[in-house]
């Protein structure tokens, strides 16, 4: 897939960003409408909200990375984090 | 693990199922997309040797981030506490760095398609056959463990019978590997890595908050039956099973670190295959080295939740105190998820576990099909057919391997601590393998006969130690028996190999170029400069140095 001709649509970074992004949106919405009972369950942290926001930030970074360094150029200083 | 269904039933709602379903849509989508790129057997088995290093590096980690890691290590965390980190900081990381710096040039440089194939070129057919068969056997056994745990989760979640869960889980993994081959497996492993982190990191943070931060955890564990020594890594007596602290340190460093982990990480084709799929020598060497960075932080999201579960979850705390109740250490993560996560995050956590077990099983199957097709079928059974034949064979072998794994899932269900079971397997297969490899790579005098006799006698030694400890002749609790078994297997393999080598005829030097250190010219061992491979952060040895330094610092902090 690192072949230049085939790459574009199937850049794994975009696929990862898409899935985590969808999760981020869903969890953030859940977090906003969260009931107090659920928050108490998680030791007082609204984990859906904060987790959702963190995933949206992650998505933005991955899309940015894919934009700045299009396929076929291996970039490895990133992607190991989280 | 059967009677606890009612206790462990997670309170999943529609939104959790949507999150899980989304993941499966992506997994199968990747399999479908990857299929378009598969046109030859090299594409199917080695991704056409085309992937960038960060992709193979994360896949390298994910391939191992299966049931063993997630459930086994959190179970160990709950039982033994912080000393479990040795599996990562003494075991995995140094071994991965060694693989990248020292051994990868021989694997990638010799253009072999599998680890057994390296064995074939260095030692000839008997050693190759021993290695290929024992590897294939180990993979289907371990695939069975992963499959069983995967089915357990589905069983807990949906209440389906275990056997239905096993078959459905197997069908999903099977479908994306047969579609897209190694590329599909690797891309899914990278995706799985992020999903697993997204699932376990929030669980860890909520758990830590619950016990009152790090200090709160230290206080709670010190007051628990585990005691304060469970919060420091060394000397780890409970883990190794040695009462003497000095012996314990030796056991961990030599048994777990040098023999078990080096054996596992440097010769296990499941992981090495990920590096062989990368696009050039530099990327191949960087694969395990890049992987070592996330690897050293995985204990924080796997072991720590296990430790937290043992002090926070009442049922598990009771089990740790007096061994009673309906739960055991393997349930640590599930219990913690049940008690702490709200719907939404709960769905994601379940997805993470499913992802992890599928990654593990997919990795086992994709390396199993390569060794079966290239090393056993093409080499010994059905020779000289066109490439499409072996591509098709690979797909059929994957189906057959899955069916066998369903059977081995039944074996796995009989053991309470799966980690013990897997450690035994690794000491059977990997410790002698590592001894043979390392001697063969650095001692050109070592002969082909020594190769297979050493392997067989080493494996026999490991099995002997296993039988002795099962019958109580050697009495070591914890993982001590595995450490001793692995150490003995290593030593016996080396001694027998040296003795046999001295009385048999070695191969000619010209046959060993690219396979033995002293006979391989330096330019063949190092990477050729490639455009786009510049930059200090792409130099394997420097990266390895940074990784090693970080690991040593972690060891000191948690000593």
TrEMBL record, chain A:
UniProt keyword list: Membrane, Transmembrane, Transmembrane helix
UniProt KW Transmembrane keyword: yes
Transmembrane spans: 12-33, 45-66
Name of the featured protein: Uncharacterized protein
From TrEMBL, chain B:
CDD domains recorded: SLC5sbd_u2
Transmembrane segments: 12-34, 54-75, 87-108, 129-154, 160-179, 191-209, 246-267, 288-313, 345-368, 389-415, 421-443, 450-469, 481-503, 541-558
Annotated InterPro entries: Na/Glc_symporter_sf, Na/solute_symporter
Alphabetical list of Pfam families matching this protein: SSF
MF term (GO), any: D-glucose:sodium symporter activity
Membrane topology: Multi-pass membrane protein
Cell compartments where the protein resides: Membrane
Highest taxon, organism lineage: Bacteria
One term under GO cellular component: plasma membrane
Record keywords: Membrane, Transmembrane, Transmembrane helix
Gene3D superfamilies for this protein: Sodium/glucose cotransporter
Classification via PANTHER family: SODIUM_GLUCOSE COTRANSPORTER 4, SOLUTE CARRIER FAMILY 5
Family classification: Belongs to the sodium:solute symporter (SSF) (TC 2.A.21) family.
UniProt-recorded name of the protein: SSS family solute:Na+ symporter
Organism field: Kribbella pratensis
Lineage of origin: Bacteria, Bacillati, Actinomycetota, Actinomycetes, Propionibacteriales
């Amino acid at each position: 897939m690192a072949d230049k001709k085939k790459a574009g649509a199937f850049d794994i970074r975009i696929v990862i960003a898409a899935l985590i992004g969808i999760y981020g949106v869903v969890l953030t919405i859940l977090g906003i409408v969260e009931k107090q009972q659920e928050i108490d369950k998680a030791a007082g942290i609204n984990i859906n909200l904060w987790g959702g926001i963190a995933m949206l930030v992650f998505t933005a970074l991955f899309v940015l990375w894919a934009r700045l360094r299009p396929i076929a150029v291996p970039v490895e200083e990133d992607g190991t984090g989280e | 693990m059967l009677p606890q269904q009612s206790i462990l039933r997670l309170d999943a709602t529609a939104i959790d199922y949507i999150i899980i379903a989304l993941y499966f849509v992506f997994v199968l989508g990747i399999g479908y997309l990857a299929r378009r790129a598969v046109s030859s057997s090299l594409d199917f088995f080695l991704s056409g040797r085309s992937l960038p290093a960060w992709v193979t590096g994360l896949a390298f980690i994910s391939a191992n981030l299966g049931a063993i890691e997630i459930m086994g290590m959190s179970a160990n965390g709950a039982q033994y506490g912080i000393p479990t980190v040795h599996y990562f900081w003494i075991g995995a990381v140094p071994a991965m760095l060694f693989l990248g710096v020292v051994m990868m040039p021989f694997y990638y440089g010799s253009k072999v398609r599998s680890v057994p194939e390296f064995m074939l070129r260095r030692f000839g057919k008997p050693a190759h056959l021993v290695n290929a068969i024992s590897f294939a056997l180990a993979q289907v056994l371990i695939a069975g463990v992963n499959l069983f745990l995967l089915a357990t989760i589905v069983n807990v979640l949906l209440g389906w019978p275990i056997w239905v869960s096993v078959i459905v889980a197997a069908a999903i993994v099977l479908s994306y590997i047969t579609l897209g081959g190694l590329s599909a497996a690797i891309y899914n492993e990278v995706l799985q890595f992020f999903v697993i982190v997204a699932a376990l990191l929030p669980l860890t943070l909520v758990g830590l908050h619950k016990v009152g931060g790090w200090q709160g955890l230290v206080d709670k564990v010190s007051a628990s039956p585990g005691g304060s020594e469970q919060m420091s890594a060394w000397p780890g007596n409970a883990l190794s099973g040695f009462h003497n602290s000095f012996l314990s340190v030796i056991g961990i460093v030599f048994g777990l670190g040098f023999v078990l982990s080096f054996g596992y990480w440097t010769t296990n084709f499941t992981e090495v295959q990920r590096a062989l799929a990368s696009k050039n020598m530099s990327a191949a060497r960087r694969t395990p080295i890049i992987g070592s960075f996330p690897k050293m932080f995985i204990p924080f999201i796997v072991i720590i939740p296990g430790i937290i579960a043992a002090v926070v979850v009442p049922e598990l705390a009771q089990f740790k105190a007096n061994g009673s109740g309906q739960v055991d250490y393997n349930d640590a993560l599930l219990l913690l998820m049940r008690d702490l996560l709200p719907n939404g995050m709960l769905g994601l956590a379940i997805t993470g576990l499913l992802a992890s077990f599928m990654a593990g099983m997919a990795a086992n199957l994709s390396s199993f099909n390569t060794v079966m097709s290239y090393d056993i079928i093409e080499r010994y059974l059905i020779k000289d057919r066109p490439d499409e034949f072996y591509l098709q064979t690979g797909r059929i072998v994957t189906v057959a391997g899955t069916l066998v794994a369903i059977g081995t899932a039944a074996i796995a269900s009989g053991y309470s601590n799966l980690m013990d079971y897997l450690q035994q397997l690794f000491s059977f297969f990997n410790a002698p393998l590592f001894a043979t490899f390392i001697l063969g790579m650095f001692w050109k005098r070592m002969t082909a006969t020594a190769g297979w006799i050493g392997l067989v006698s080493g494996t026999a030694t490991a099995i002997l130690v296993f039988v002795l400890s099962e019958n109580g002749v050697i009495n070591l609790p914890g993982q001590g028996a595995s450490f001793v078994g692995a150490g003995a297997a290593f030593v016996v393999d080396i001694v027998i190999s040296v003795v046999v080598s001295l009385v048999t005829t070695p191969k000619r030097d010209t046959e060993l170029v690219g396979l033995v250190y002293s006979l391989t010219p330096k330019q063949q061992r190092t990477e050729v400069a490639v455009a786009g491979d510049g930059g200090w952060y792409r130099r394997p040895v420097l990266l390895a140095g940074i990784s090693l330094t970080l690991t040593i610092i972690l060891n000191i902090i948690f000593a």
